[in-house]
């Protein structure tokens, strides 16, 4: 399947993943406002983990349902089997963030060479957008690189961590699609319905 066809077929799911990310952003910001005066790092870390798990659970629900629906279509011979479709959808949904990070790195690099205020402003705006989109991971990032990164090493660590923060969502997308496709649930509390 060509990339254009794949994106056209799965654009609704990819957009739903973005909507889920915005839901997690709102949840993470509400948690941040609730603990704004807390100085205990354990409480901050636990709230961050809660926000991350909430986001990954939203991804799980969406992709499990998509995998289950695709299995019905494959069994009815209306869709060709695609074993890594969940992984491909996850990578397609993570691509805009990777693109924003690449533009951020490019703007910082050009600013380092030319010292132009334009590229400093562009990199600052891109960093703010990325930080908003990855707000559920912000406390972890602030523990590793407190404040605004100023040295080249801090900037590189910042970019690498922001790239790494996309991996759990991609893995959750892939795994939950796989589980939905095969009719398995993540929790043992729910039993699979028996088929006749």
Shape: globular
Give the terminus-to-terminus CA distance.
Answer: 34 Å
β-strand number: 0
Task: Report the total helices.
Answer: 7
- Helix/strand structural class: mainly alpha
Instruction: State mean pLDDT (0 to 100 scale).
Output: 84
Overall description:
- There is one protein chain.
- The protein has 196 residues and is mostly helical.
- The longest helix is centred in the N-terminal third of the chain and has 35 residues, at 41-75.
- The protein is built from seven helices and no strands.
- It is globular.
Task: Sum up the structure in keywords.
196 residues; mainly alpha; 0% strand
Describe the SSE topology.
Layout lengths: L2 H32 L6 H35 L9 H30 L2 H17 L4 H7 L7 H13 L2 H15 L15
Summary, kept brief:
The protein has about 200 residues and is an all-alpha fold. The chain has 7 helices and no strands.
């Amino acid at each position: 399947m060509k990339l254009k066809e794949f994106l056209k077929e799965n654009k609704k799911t990819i957009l739903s993943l973005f909507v889920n990310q915005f839901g997690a952003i709102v949840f993470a910001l509400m948690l941040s406002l609730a603990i704004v005066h807390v100085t205990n790092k354990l409480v901050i870390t636990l709230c961050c983990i809660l926000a991350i798990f909430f986001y990954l659970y939203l991804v799980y629900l969406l992709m499990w349902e998509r995998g289950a629906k695709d299995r019905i279509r494959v069994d009815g011979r209306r869709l060709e089997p695609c074993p890594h479709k969940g992984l491909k959808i996850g990578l397609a949904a993570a691509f805009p963030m990777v693109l924003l990070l690449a533009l951020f790195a490019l703007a910082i690099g050009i600013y380092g060479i030319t010292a132009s205020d334009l590229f400093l402003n562009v990199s600052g705006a891109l960093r703010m957008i990325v930080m908003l989109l990855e707000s559920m991971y912000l406390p972890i990032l602030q523990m590793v690189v407190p404040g605004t990164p100023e040295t080249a090493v801090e900037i590189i660590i910042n970019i690498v961590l922001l790239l790494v923060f996309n991996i759990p969502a991609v893995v959750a997308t892939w795994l939950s699609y796989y589980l939905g496709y095969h009719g398995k649930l993540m929790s043992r509390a729910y039993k699979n319905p028996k088929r006749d």
